[in-house]
Fold this protein.
Amino acid sequence: MQPGAFGPRLVALIALLHGRYRLSDRELVDLVQMVWQLPISVGSVCHLQQVASAALAPAQAEVQAAIAEADHVHVDETSWREGTRRPWLWVAVGTMATLFLIQMGRGKVQLQAILDATFTGRVISDRLAAYHSIPTERRQVCWAHLIRNLRSRVESKGRWQADAADLLALADLVFALWERFREGAIDRATLQAMMQPIQQAMWERMQIVKHDGHYLSSLCSELLRLWDALWTFLEVEGIEPTNNAAERALRPAVLWRKGSYGTQSDGGSRFVERMLTVSATCQQHERPLFPYLIAAITAYWANQPAPKLLPSEGA
């Protein structure tokens, strides 16, 4: 049942302007009073955001279930603020859906809240320890992170600099071949064949450097342990060598955090993650966000099933 004087369109608009376009609560009050001459307070704006959040809870659950069944998922995390607490905002990007979760930590437990024991797909990520719980044959380590690591070691200077420069040059060759493959200039079999001497050269150099006991040694030891996870993109269709999809998905959230300094409560965090989830997933399907918000809020007030967010084929 619809409470008070505000209808689903206004509630959806408040959720949209705050959650998608990042207007502050005070700016929303001024806008509603100026455009519609409606008396509304900051407290009412916050309450209506919680109404929208409750209406989007089924969509959040729908996406979370679909992500857990995806063939492959890009996963990343960034810091968040919730009052005096410092949680992390996680993102998981599938082919057809994107999930955001704000959790207290960035470890194995938080990863399992996104990808539980039933998940059998592949994960594209950075080299955070939380991801070590996933077998290397089901991982793809982000080469963009690796290149940044190598470049920092080249720029830091020291007796490891020449080795770092050589490994960086080999990594650049990996990307050059991948771009040729993406452009259709070579097929997968040719990509694999041309990559073999690069793989061999990297392996041999890392085997030597890992024993040198300098700034680069620990990185090489880590990469050798993750060796299979460096090359999944060569074998599996749809897997990319970078985690750019997750990093792109996090950018609106980072802007939200910088503009609002995070959230003040658990309820605020739930609104953030649900709005980010629904907004990003709608964008993946080129589906207008505002009509979906209206439909979800209307169904919530009518005690009816929430509208489906995903197509039937899943994530």
